[in-house]
């Protein structure tokens, strides 16, 4: 059953032009476009563009896939009655959830490989198996955290139009305050304050450090990890309370 | 044998009491029409029978099992014997008709021959159409075809003929009656079309003010001095 559901979940994703453009086209194109603008610059830690923005855009794809194709999709199914119709079949909720999670992992892993390949081809990024493996492990953990946060956030939406507007707005906010457009420390103070609340900003900091083998457990990293744990626990509480709610 | 036994059923949404002590029984092989005004609680009642809506008070037994005492796994098992057509009908919009039938066949663990289902429900010309692109009538037919995939013992239909033209409505009823005659399955449906109730239903449940205002056979109602079920409805239910 799981294999069948996953097959159709992937087919449905591939047929949603909106998802495909926002998840698999916009991030790589932005990566290439920003590379044309800032490709020659050096960043904190003496890192070049590819070393900073390759992990960043892998994370951005992860965010878009999980928030659009997983979170928003849940709202769309809930508000149009598809969820209710599926609930009336004997298929277990855990199979449906697991299929959605595996689908997200497959697509985000594809994004990982895609951005990495562009980095190697266009920006001469080096491939180091040990670093790639460590980074992939952190990437999977961040996938799990984002899946929980997305499920919790979108569980509040009862209307797919408002969820769509939220998704588009949050994409812009994440892009600006997550360090995906330009380093946050070069932005106005208000943006830096907002960035501190953006989980993608914290993930990006940690992921870039792991990617470049520069992770040091100092206070900034502990704050980021603590904040992500706080959001994860908060999301679990929200999902638990929603799950217990009667119709 | 009663396959559904409902006693003193109550359900409220906040302050709004929708069902206030409803009693109901259905036997194997019966076709029962549930009628009442918009907002009378018909859909809520059906969704409770479908096992997807909790209720506040009373007892509901489906196939002899008390719904309130069943675990999630037990409910999944029970749903293998129930099929539904919802109003409005919604499925994954980016799947094609053939793909939807295959997926739901898997959901129900059915051994139905999809090619035969396609032929039976005249769906062959629509096999490669996306569900979202079908007309309302064909969506209902697809929904019914999916409902029959599992060879259900209980078929619950929420306003299945709303928005259908007379030919489509006729076709849909043919399938329902054929299913009922062939398998002895029970059919419970809501409708605003009193002619359908008169023509096809063995029994009628009128829900008014959240209670079972009238529950009897169609024949009994007609014998009680009404020329039609429509006349009965207009006499019993105020606008």
What does this structure look like?
The model of chain A has no long low-confidence stretch (mean pLDDT 88). In chain A, strands 1-2 form a two-stranded antiparallel ribbon. In chain A, strand 1 and strand 2 form a beta hairpin. Chain A is mainly α and 247 residues long. The two termini of chain A are 27 Å apart. In chain A, helix 3 runs antiparallel to helix 5 and helix 3 crosses helix 9. Chain A is 80% helix and 2% strand. The radius of gyration of chain A is 18 Å and the shape is globular. Chain B is α/β, with parallel strands linked by helices and 239 residues long. In chain B, the strands form two sheets. Chain B has a six-stranded mixed beta sheet with strand order 6-7-8-3-9-10, sandwiched between helices. In chain B, strand 1 and strand 2 form a beta hairpin. The longest helix of chain B has 18 residues. Chain B is globular, with a radius of gyration of 18 Å. Chain B starts with a strand and ends with a helix. At the A-B interface, helix 1 and helix 4 of A face helix 2 and helix 3 of B.
Helical stretch tally of chain B: 9
Spatial strand arrangement across the major sheet of chain B: 6-7-8-3-9-10
Question: What is the mean pLDDT of chain A?
Answer: 88
- Uncertain ranges of chain A: none
Rounded average pLDDT of chain B? 89
What is the oligomer described by this structure?
A: heterodimer
String of helices and strands of chain B: EEEHEEHEHHHEHEHEEHH
**How many DSSP-defined strands of chain B?**
10
CA gyration radius of chain A, whole angstroms = 18 Å
Please give the most extensive interface between any two protein chains, plus how many residues each contributes: A-B, 23 and 31 residues
Reported for the largest beta sheet of chain B, the result is: 6 strands, mixed
Q: Roughly what percent helix of chain B? A: 25-40%
Q: Which structural class fits the helix and strand makeup of chain A?
A: mainly alpha
């Amino acid at each position: 059953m799981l294999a069948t559901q996953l097959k159709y979940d992937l087919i449905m994703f591939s047929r949603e032009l909106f998802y495909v453009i926002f998840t698999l086209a916009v991030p790589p194109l932005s990566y290439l476009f920003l590379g044309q603008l800032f490709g020659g610059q050096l960043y904190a830690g003496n890192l070049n563009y590819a070393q900073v923005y390759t992990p960043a855009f892998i994370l951005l794809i992860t965010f878009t896939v999980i928030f659009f194709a997983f979170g928003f999709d849940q709202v769309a199914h809930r508000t149009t009655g598809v969820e209710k119709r599926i609930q009336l079949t004997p298929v277990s909720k855990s199979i449906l959830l697991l299929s959605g999670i595996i689908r997200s992992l497959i697509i985000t892993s594809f994004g990982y490989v895609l951005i990495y390949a562009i980095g190697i081809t266009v920006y001469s990024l080096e491939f180091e198996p040990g670093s790639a493996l460590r980074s992939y492990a952190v990437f999977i953990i961040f996938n799990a955290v984002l899946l929980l946060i997305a499920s919790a956030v979108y569980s509040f939406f009862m209307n797919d139009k408002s969820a769509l507007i939220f998704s588009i707005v949050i994409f812009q906010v994440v892009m600006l305050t997550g360090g995906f457009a330009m380093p946050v420390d070069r932005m106005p103070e208000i943006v830096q304050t907002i960035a501190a609340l953006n989980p993608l900003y914290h993930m990006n900091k940690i992921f870039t450090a792991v990617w470049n083998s520069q992770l040091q457990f100092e206070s900034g990293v502990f704050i980021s990890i603590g904040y992500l744990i706080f959001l994860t626990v908060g999301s679990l509480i929200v999902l638990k309370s929603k799950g217990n709610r009667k119709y | 044998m009663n396959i559904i036994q409902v006693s003193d059923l109550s359900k409220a949404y906040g302050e709004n009491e929708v069902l206030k002590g409803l009693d109901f029984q259905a036997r194997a092989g019966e076709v029962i029409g549930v009628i009442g005004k918009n907002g009378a609680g018909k859909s809520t009642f059906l969704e409770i029978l479908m096992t997807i809506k909790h209720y506040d008070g009373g007892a509901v037994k489906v196939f002899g099992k008390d719904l309130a005492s069943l675990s999630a796994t037990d409910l999944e098992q029970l749903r293998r014997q129930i099929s539904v057509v919802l109003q409005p009908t919604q499925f994954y919009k980016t799947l094609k008709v053939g793909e939807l039938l295959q997926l739901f066949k898997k959901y129900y663990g059915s051994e139905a021959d999809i090619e035969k289902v396609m032929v039976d429900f005249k769906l062959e010309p629509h096999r490669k159409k996306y569900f979202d692109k079908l007309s309302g009538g064909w969506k209902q037919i697809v929904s019914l075809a999916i409902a029959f995939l599992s060879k259900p013992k209980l078929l619950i239909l929420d306003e299945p003929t709303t928005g259908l033209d007379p030919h489509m409505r006729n076709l849909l009823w043919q399938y329902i009656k054929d299913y009922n005659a062939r398998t002895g399955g029970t059919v419970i449906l809501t409708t605003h079309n009193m002619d359908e109730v008169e023509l096809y239903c063995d029994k009628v449940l009128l829900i008014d003010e959240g209670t079972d205002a009238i529950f009897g056979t169609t024949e009994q109602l007609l014998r009680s001095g009404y020329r039609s079920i429509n006349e009965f409805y207009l006499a019993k239910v105020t606008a």
